[in-house]
Amino acid sequence: MTNRMHPTRLLRNRRAVALIEFALGLPIFLMLTLTGAELTNYIIVKMRISQIALQVADNAARMGTGSLLSAKIVSETDVNDLLTGAELQAGGLDLYKHGRVILSDLQPATVPNTTPPKYKIAKQRCRGSAAHASTYGAQGSINSGMGPPGHLTFAPENGATMFVEVYYRYQPLVQSSLAPSETIIETASMMVRDRRDLSDYSNTERAVISSC
Questions:
Q1: pLDDT, tens digit, for every residue of 107-122?
Q2: What is residue 47's predicted lDDT score, i.e. its pLDDT?
Q3: pLDDT of res. 13
Q4: Could you check whether the bond before residue 7 is cis, i.e. omega within 30 degrees of 0?
Q5: Sequence-separated (6 or more) residues with CB below 8 Å from residue 58
Q6: Nearest to residue 98, comparing CAs of 90, 106, 107?
Q7: Collapsed DSSP state (helix, strand, coil) of residue 111
Q8: Which residues contact 174 (CB under 8 A, 6 or more apart)?
């Protein structure tokens, strides 16, 4: 004779309830955990890319050789060393495999400048395999400043500002759809501190630096 459980007894049965609840809650718990891990990793990577942009801009504003009595001369070797330093700072991010660094030398379009003032990208150097052009113009272009609206960067009279853009394709821990964005773009700028020869860089080692 078949032993059938009465419906009311079935409703009151609590055996394996914890196992069922665990099975139902596990996917949600895993999704929340993986999303949290991905967001944390994304924030850390974004912060590192921001620090790289700031460090490159700061170093670019200081680079060059010369005495205190003469204008510093910047060479392609200096630029190459600068971009190599960014790769070392990035460490395991594989910056130039998954991204691109764009260094722009912003100068007044004329001296004295016009009203309203205009600026030119006198020189621009890039490195990285990612196909990404500068958001603010190529070498030789004239603009009203570089940077997002409301946060434009300008160049001083008889001087220059080094503007850096770092583009990086985010490498997810689990899945890129769990991160806010698949790409990270950070910018930074620094005014050149010392007197600098604003003519073109002083040798032809651009083979080690991809043109923009």
A1: 999 988 988 999 999 9
A2: 97
A3: 58
A4: no
A5: 188, 190
A6: 90
A7: coil
A8: 34, 37, 38
CA distances from 18 to 13, 22, 23, 28, 33 (A): 12, 6, 9, 16, 21
The pLDDT, as a whole number, for residue 207 is 47
Residue 171 structure tokens: 């490498």
Taking CA atoms, 58 is separated from 121, 131, 133, 171, 211, in Å, by 18, 25, 22, 26, 21
- One-letter amino acid at 2 equals T
- The alpha helices in 63-108, defined as continuous H runs, are 76-90, 95-98
Q: Which residues of the chain have pLDDT under 70?
A: 1-19, 21-22, 202-211
Neighbouring CB atoms inside 10 A of 194's CB total 13
What pLDDT is attached to residue 164?
A: 98
pTM reported for the whole predicted model: 0.83
Which tokens sit at 149?
Answer: 């609206």
The pair phi, psi for residue 82, each rounded to 5°, is -60, -45
Distance CA(60)–CA(70), nearest Å, equals: 18
Residue by residue, DSSP assigns 18-44 as HHHHHHHHHHHHHHHHHHHHHHHHHHH
Please give the Cα distance from 122 to 201 (Å, whole number): 11
CB 209 within 8 A of CB 79: yes
